Amino acid sequence: MTPETTPPQTNLETTPAAAPETAAPLNAEASEPKPVRAVSGKKAKRQVPSGRVYVQATYNNTIVSFTDLQGNVIGQASAGRTGFRGPKKSTPYAAGMIVRQAATKAHEYGLREVSVFVKGFGSGREAAIRAINANGINVLSIKDVSPLPHNGCRPKKPRRI
């Protein structure tokens, strides 16, 4: 054979099939046993004695969120989630039911006193604040954070007749 026609030489020692000592053992006893983690009971919820309540009351819905002082939500509810449909979602009665549902979740964390931040112009604003106090949570302060325009959009041009 001439040097141009000889097949290329391969190194058999570097192929994966030629290294049987790196293969996994066939029996399970030769491998080390895995450590077993102890299964603990239900994790205790952290206690949050004071927090904030955000009430968003629009013309179509009311949403209430209970948070801790860092802003982490610990309980929230809305009118649609509570079971109200259509025009009943924005009623003061629905706002009271929403707060009761969210307050039961917040009571699991030991929430006792809150600062209330109200946003929007819906009919559930005042009813939600009254319901917070009625559900055994002390209201420290109430602040209206509704967005107000500083002169708003440009008005339409006057009509020429």
Structure description:
It is a single chain. With 161 residues, the chain is α/β, with parallel strands linked by helices. The chain has helices at residues 79-82, 92-107, 125-134; strands spanning 50-57, 62-68, 73-78, 113-119, 138-144. The chain has a domain at 50-144: 2-Layer Sandwich (Nucleotidyltransferase, domain 5). The chain has a five-stranded mixed beta sheet. α2 runs parallel beside α3 (125-134). The longest helix has 16 residues, at 92-107.
Low-pLDDT parts are none
CATH homologous superfamily caption of the domain at 50-144: Ribosomal protein S11/S14
Named CATH architecture of the domain at 50-144 = 2-Layer Sandwich
Number of E-type strands: 5
Give the mean pLDDT. 83
CATH fold type of the domain at 50-144? Nucleotidyltransferase, domain 5
Name the strands of the widest sheet in spatial order: 3-2-1-4-5
Name the CATH class of the domain at 50-144. Answer: Alpha Beta
What is the count of helical runs? 3
Helix and strand succession?
Answer: EEEHHEHE
Largest sheet: 5 strands, mixed
Strand portion? 15-25%
Helix content: 10-25%
* Class from helix and strand fractions: alpha/beta
Query: What's the alpha carbon Rg, rounded to whole Å?
Result: 33 Å
Q: List the quaternary state of the chains.
A: single chain
Shape descriptor: flat
CA distance, first residue to last residue: 106 Å
